[in-house]
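In full, the data.
>
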Amino acid sequence: MNHFLSQKDPRIRIVEEADGTYLEMEAEKELFEIKTEIIGTEKLGMVRIVEAPYEDPKGDPIVLNTDYLGLPRKTSPMVGSLENLKKGYNQIKVWGR
């Protein structure tokens, strides 16, 4: 597993503005070096208690190929739930009005 332990404060904040709610954070360059892949039903395996595969409501396999905001994931996606982070300061609108 490729990971890193940061000694820096990512300065994560939730900020409410007139037009919506924003996530602010600092992303270190090491975050972008972690090897990742698109995850789906096959990679997730079986749900323990019911011994069934992970599926969508129609019973089809799932593929986690979009981020929290609905943006498409890259072949080697960003770690976490937001695809378009950049090194350094980020401000992402997570809820809008």
In short: The chain has one helix and seven strands. The mean pLDDT is 92. The two ends are 39 Å apart (CA to CA). Residues 41-44 form the longest helix (4 residues).
